[in-house]
Amino acid sequence: xxxxxxxxxxxxxxxxxxxxxxxxxxxxxxxxxxxxxxxxxxxxxxxxxxxxxxxxxxxxxxxxxxxxxxxxxxxxxxxxxxxxxxxxxxxxxxxxxxxxxxxxxxxxxxxxxxxxxxxxxxxxxxxxxxxxxxxxxxxxxxxxxxxxxxxxxxxxxxxxxxxxxxxxxxxxxxxxxxxxxxxxxxxxxxxxxxxxxxxxxxxxxxxxxxxxxxxxxxxxxxxxxxxxxxxxxxxxxxxxxxxxxxxxxxxxxxxxxxxxxxxxxxxxxxxxxxxxxxxxxxxxxxxx
Length: 288
Known about the structure:
Number of helices: 12
Helix content: over 70%
Order of helices and strands: HHHHHHHHHHHH
Distance between the termini: 56 Å
């Protein structure tokens, strides 16, 4: 084979290597795809994902009605029950994900691949976010219909902005926890269980966060859902502003700061985790 034929053959079989932003986005889409498709293969999961949270929401609604609490509290409960879906998705589908991948033997493949770990985790987040958003919408609509909740949105633009900032900050915290849980190894499962109920309490899922002492509520605001829920309630219910912890513009500013803090911390900790895995190899080994 002469040089011209060799050159033509190499050009024919050459593959363009993607880098930078395009490669990052391709990784996100590729990792989100299995989760989005997986939700369609087992329709019964969606039924139970909506039914079981509605039972917990209904219990709180009946308690509030038994003690003649204001009607807005019923709406607070339904919205809080809808937002629990996002916290559960972050806790079990992101924070613990790298630990589970390690147990299944897949983590070493993630470390060796040229993909960004943030892109992989972001793909997991977006894939789970689709099903989680549908579940949250179903709970909000079904709860509003069953319990006759009056929704009065004062600003759709601010409501959308609050939701998006809360989700970015929350999933940034999930990426941060993914590295922490992996570094702590076997304690990841216990930490996931430990973090579940306290966040329900301190985020004010079923009551206004203003019910706490100011400093307790301020400390709980490190959890993005705390301020996200408080701001959304102020924008959705007529008396929400009177029961709000801080003003909506201030909460928007704090959520923006939390987005930067959590995403930056997650990037730094993921990079540290990758260096440890490459240098020592112990993070990718499953030691029971």
